[in-house]
Each structure stands twice: as structure tokens, then as C-alpha cells.
Design a protein that fits this description.
about 230 residues, alpha+beta, four-stranded antiparallel β-sheet, 6 strands
């Protein structure tokens, strides 16, 4: 499994010096910078603190490529040790409850029918005479929606690994039957989490997720850079 990461740092570094590197979506965010890989003892401490062994593709990436940095969208969220505790850093990482990482990721999300019914109850401004009453109704509805869609149990056994902007994020499943796969989070658009699938309809694992991004980035740079 380590072999699949051979040369990855060098390929990212090669893109960083190309004038067309910034044509790749999100590159201005991560700047093509990869953090240093984790040491074995650091990874062991991280896994001890979260109470679960990380998926093999991801843990070997952390050991042999980087602790985070250049990657899909605005970059792979880094994991860092701060004041004696390990944590991931990035937009939305707090959506993941680190105390629940050893719990299996749910086999299914909220009941679609219940979601449909709740969406049908969303307040509409034209139904209120006073804007204050509308605001109060929206606030109360939002609380109900968040309790269903953003309950910590919905993302037990998973971590946020990147964001695509506009509150769209992607998660890596750490525990359960979906361990090692990457899921899209479009809950901001009223859509439940869904697994990323390849062209054959198979769930995308971390290594495929990262290397596919790198290959797309290389094609983009080659197509637009006068230096290549």
C-alpha cells in the first residue's frame, strides 16, 4: 500500500512551479504546499487519542506523503498536534465529533419521507404579515432541521477532510462498513450525505480520491501551461 504513494510529493511539487498551477480549482487556497508527513509515534498517539485505527490508505498517506495540504478542492485538511491533543483543522472540521470516531458510520441517514415532510413545512415569507414573525418561524424551523440533518450521530465514525466552498464538504469514513470511503456533504442544499462513486458505480476510497485529483490537476496544467 505504501507503493501507491511513491512520487506523489514530487508530482505535487512539479505542479507548484508551473505558471498554470493556479488554473486548478482551489490551488490558490492550498498553494500546492504539502505539510510534512507524520512520524510513526505521532500517528500512534493520534490513533490512541481518537480510539480507532485510521483507514490504511489514509494512514499511509499521513506517514509517507503529508499530514495535509495540497489536495482536492481547497486542500486536504491537516491533522496537527496542539497543546498535547491531535485535531484536524479546516472549514467545518468541528462538525465531526472526535469522541464518536470509533462508532460505526450510520448505514443510512434520516428517513427521506420525514425530510420531505419537514421541507414542506419550511416557512415562506409571504405567509406572514410581520417580518419578525417570519424570522421567528424560520429560526424554529432551522432548529428542527439541524436536529435531524446535523445531529452528531449522523456523522459518527467520520471526519471532514476538505471543503469545496459554499459550505459543501467531503468526509472520510473512519469506522463501520463504509470505512475508507469518501462521502459528499451537500446538506447546505438540503441533500443528505452521499458516497462518491467512480465511473463503475463503486465507492471511491481515499487513495482513488486523492490520485484522481492529482491526475486531473496534471491534465489541467498540461493543457494550459506554456511551460509544459
Amino acid at each position: 500500500m505504501v507503493d501507491q504513494w511513491a512520487g506523489i510529493r514530487e508530482r505535487v511539487a512539479a505542479l507548484s512551479v508551473q505558471s498554470a498551477g493556479n488554473e486548478v480549482f482551489g490551488a490558490l487556497g492550498h498553494g500546492w504546499v504539502l505539510e510534512e508527513p507524520l512520524a510513526e509515534d505521532g500517528l500512534a498517539e493520534l490513533e490512541e487519542q481518537i480510539g480507532v485505527r485510521l483507514p490504511e490508505e489514509y494512514r499511509t498517506f499521513l506517514l509517507h506523503v503529508a499530514a495535509g495540504g495540497a489536495g482536492p478542492a481547497y486542500g486536504l485538511f491537516p491533522v496537527r498536534r496542539t497543546q498535547g491533543r491531535w485535531r484536524w483543522e479546516g472549514d467545518g472540521v468541528d462538525l465531526a465529533d472526535l469522541s464518536l470516531l470509533a462508532e460505526p458510520f450510520p448505514e443510512q441517514g434520516p428517513d427521506p419521507k420525514a425530510l420531505e415532510e419537514l421541507l414542506a413545512q419550511r416557512p415562506e415569507e409571504e405567509d406572514f404579515d410581520e417580518i419578525e414573525d417570519f424570522d421567528d418561524a424560520v429560526e424554529a424551523w432551522d432548529e428542527q432541521w439541524d436536529a435531524v440533518m446535523f445531529a452528531p450521530e449522523r456523522t459518527a465514525g467520520a471526519i471532514v477532510i476538505c471543503h469545496l466552498g459554499c459550505a459543501l464538504r467531503e468526509w472520510l469514513i473512519i469506522s463501520g462498513s463504509h470505512r475508507g470511503t469518501v462521502w459528499a456533504d451537500s446538506r447546505v442544499d438540503d441533500v443528505d450525505l452521499k458516497p462518491l462513486l467512480d465511473d463503475d458505480g463503486k465507492p471511491v476510497t481515499f487513495a482513488r480520491w486523492y490520485t484522481d485529483w492529482l491526475e486531473r490537476a496534471e491534465r489541467t496544467v498540461m493543457a494550459t501551461s506554456p511551460d509544459v
